[in-house]
Amino acid sequence: MLTLSGVTKRYGETLALVEADLAFTPGHVHTILGENGSGKSTLVKLLSGVVAPTAGEIRLDGQPLHFARPADAQRHGIATVFQEVLLAPERSVLENIFMGYDGLLTYRLSRTERRDKAAQLLAAVSRTPMDLDQPAGEAALAQQQLIVLARALVRDPRILILDEVTAALDFGDRDVLFDAVRSFVAQGRLVIFISHRMDEVRRLSDRVTVLRSGRVVETLAGAEITGARLLALMLPDTRIPVHHHD
């Protein structure tokens, strides 16, 4: 569905991503795992249309993609929820969910349809009902992140990129979110999940690609995804200390 061939991103002298080859298949949660500085956020920016590759090619359904701006990625059915919670704090929860929606699609939903849709999406991702008319900035941080997630889902994307989105969530919220992610991919869609939390990665992923210093190290699937294997790929120089007893 989505492939990267030899994708490199350079910022001046810095190589943030080096000749990355990746293939993403629909119906999967494909996790990108790596330490800070491994190239994860660069990959997210490339797939979201925030930056363009220095070299290489990104293809969707076999067609080359050239994103000049994030709206181009959205038009191709790619929705990204970034680690930073990006919302308009003074606007209502409802307005935040539908922000940018009308410019994207030609038809408009009636006010009642909007309320129903927003309530339905929030119910799918959140344990606690939210007041759609309250200013979004007054909601707790975890709820703000879920409002941004609902905004991504209202666009009905084929590809959902979740960039370290669980940071603000507690375990209960994470469970609800993970259920929503599983039902999303069950519809033949793709979730690209960016994380550095080993427990989440093992629990949620169908495939895991490990990045290190801007390079793709390896992609694991299914039973290969173990904590020990992932750690060895992320931190290859880690040696388990041996204690000598005199």
**Anisotropy-based shape:** globular
Q: What is the count of helical runs?
A: 9
Named at the architecture level, the CATH assignment is 3-Layer(aba) Sandwich
Strand order of the largest sheet: 6-7-8-3-9-10
Strand content: 25-35%
Number of strands: 10
CATH class: Alpha Beta
Radius of gyration: 19 Å
> CATH H level: which superfamily?
P-loop containing nucleotide triphosphate hydrolases
* Topology as a string of helices (H) and strands (E): EEEHEEHEHHHHEHEHEEH
Could you describe the 3D structure shown?
This protein is 34% helix and 26% strand. It has 246 residues and is of the alpha/beta class. It has a single domain, classed as P-loop containing nucleotide triphosphate hydrolases (Rossmann fold, 3-Layer(aba) Sandwich). The strands form two sheets. A six-stranded mixed beta sheet has the order 6-7-8-3-9-10, with helices on both faces. Strands 2-1-4-5 form a four-stranded antiparallel beta sheet, with helices on one face. A hairpin with a 2-residue loop joins strand 4 and strand 5. The longest helix is centred in the last third of the chain and has 16 residues. It is globular and about 50 Å long. 37% of the residues are buried.
Spell out the blueprint of helices and strands:
Layout (H helix, E strand, L loop, with lengths): L1 E10 L2 E11 L3 E6 L6 H9 L6 E6 L2 E2 L5 H6 L2 E4 L11 H5 L3 H4 L6 H15 L15 H14 L4 E5 L7 H16 L3 E6 L2 H7 L2 E6 L2 E7 L5 H8 L12
Parallel strand pairs: 3-8, 3-9, 6-7, 7-8
Antiparallel strand pairs: 1-2, 1-4, 4-5, 9-10
Helix pairs in contact: 5-6
Main traits of this protein?
Rossmann fold; 246 residues; globular; 4-stranded antiparallel β-sheet; 6-stranded mixed β-sheet; alpha/beta; 9 helices
